[in-house]
Design goal:
alpha+beta; Helix Hairpins; Heat Shock Protein 90; eight-stranded mixed β-sheet; two-stranded antiparallel sheet; 10 strands; disordered C terminus
């Protein structure tokens, strides 16, 4: 078990739904005020103070842990949650034990809310499930001890004890069953994810095998032709074709290394027009005559902090995707432009880029577009709409990985008239990221 991952799970479980937590807090505050007014006991206002204090301690502890968190710190976090639970239950337990029918009914309702909250929480930690059951059982035992003395007959006392023991028993059974179902669902999801991963690996292997087979066929064929050729010009053509196939095979390997983050990254202050010019030269030889390719560089030198070769790889992937989206021909525009984000901007992968100045490398095609149903999936590894064996399915996943590596992001805009994919990278000046209050170079 990873203590930090478990602590993170506890934080998300308790504080991810802010509205629900605020409703609970407001309810307890209102309940404290009404209890103090009805029972004429200002001390009832301590309920909200104790509850907020316990939650604050729990929240601060969870957020102060790092990836080096230990099992001891996890146990402290779990015990703090049990303290939070008891800080809520103490007032309802006191109310149930009072002679006032109104207080008893309200207290019973609040206690029931606490039980339902624990079941809804879907706790999977065995330590916490046992702890929650013990807290509920001990709290009910204390209340039962006080109430049982108010019964004059043995049958009445026995009825109270048996009914409350049954409630505790059914609650414990519900907690264990909920834990069992939650773990089973999680296991099923993991199995499905593993099956998808294996299928994706098979697709990846098919794409790589297809690419390498094509390149090896070209290399082998041209080397065989060399044996029968005497004309130096023809031999040069064969060698050039073999070298191009070798370069293409190396590019496939490089894509895999980039995606696996195994290729070395050399961060330099890079003129945004430099990779754009390289892409223009490299891409022209891969365009059909039916496609008009245009390159639109920036009018001035503007800089990003990045690895030139990886930016070229990313933009080339976009160019090849755009080319494949226009089998009947069209227009392909490759451009770079300065972009000022006054506010944080959503990008692919459910992330947001902070406000600031960015350079946007954009590839626009006039193809059939990407349907809204699959736009969210196109950056997933191995996802592809191409036939089996055509490509590795890593194109946009690599683009997304490279953009994130350089603190940028990817945006996709598509309709029936075409698709524009943009790689946004922070603009720099003298090695520093240009913020909103900075002047452009």
């Amino acid at each position: 078990m990873n203590p930090y991952a478990e602590i993170t799970r506890l934080r998300v479980l308790e504080y991810s739904e802010l509205t629900e937590w605020l409703v609970r807090l407001l309810g307890i505050a209102l309940g404290s005020a009404l209890l103090a007014a009805y029972a004429h006991q200002p001390v009832a206002l301590l309920w909200i103070a104790v509850f907020v204090g316990a939650h604050l301690s729990y929240y601060l502890f969870l957020n102060s842990r790092t990836e080096t968190a230990t099992l001891r710190e996890l146990r402290i976090a779990q015990l703090l949650f049990l303290v939070v639970l008891e800080s809520f239950l103490c007032a309802p337990a006191w109310m149930v034990s009072q002679e006032s029918r109104v207080l008893s009914l309200v207290g019973a309702g609040l206690f029931g809310c606490g039980l339902m909250y624990l079941i809804r929480r879907n706790e999977v930690s065995k330590f916490l499930v046992i702890g929650e059951i013990l807290v509920i059982a001990l709290t009910m035992a204390v209340v039962a001890f006080k109430l049982v003395q108010e019964f004059d007959t043995v049958s009445g006392r026995l009825g109270l004890v048996v009914s409350w023991m049954a409630l505790i028993g059914y609650f414990a059974q519900s907690m264990w069953q909920t834990r069992k179902l939650t773990l089973a669902e999680k296991s099923a999801k993991n199995d499905a994810a593993q099956a998808h991963k294996l299928a994706a690996i098979g697709q990846l292997a098919g794409g790589i095998a297809h690419d390498f087979n094509n390149n090896l066929t070209i290399i082998s064929g041209n080397l065989e032709l060399l044996e029968d050729m005497d004309d130096p010009q023809e031999r040069a053509i064969c060698l050039a074709a073999a070298q191009q196939a070798t370069a293409q095979a190396a590019a496939t390997v490089n894509e895999l290394l980039i995606f696996a983050r195994k290729t070395p990254t050399r961060l330099v202050k890079l003129d945004a027009n430099t990779p754009l010019a390289d892409v223009g030269v490299l891409a022209r030889g891969h365009m059909s005559e039916k496609i008009t390719m245009r390159v639109h560089p920036l009018p001035d030198e503007v800089y990003v902090l990045a690895d030139k070769h990886q930016i070229v790889t990313a933009v080339l992937n976009l160019v090849f995707n755009a080319r494949d989206a226009m089998p009947d021909g069209g227009t392909l525009d490759i451009s770079a432009r300065m972009l000022n984000l006054a506010h944080s901007e959503p990008v692919a992968g459910e992330r947001k880029l902070p406000a600031g100045h960015y350079i946007s490398f954009e590839v626009r095609d006039t193809g059939h577009g990407i349907s809204p149903e699959i736009q969210r999936w196109v950056i997933e590894p191995f996802f592809t709409t191409k036939p089996t064996g055509k490509g590795t399915g890593l194109g946009l996943a690599i683009v997304h990985s490279i953009a994130e590596r350089f603190n940028g992001g990817v945006q996709i805009a598509s309709d029936t008239t075409g698709t524009t994919v943009s790689i946004l990278l922070p603009q720099i000046d003298n090695g520093q990221v240009v913020g909103l209050d900075s002047d452009r170079p």
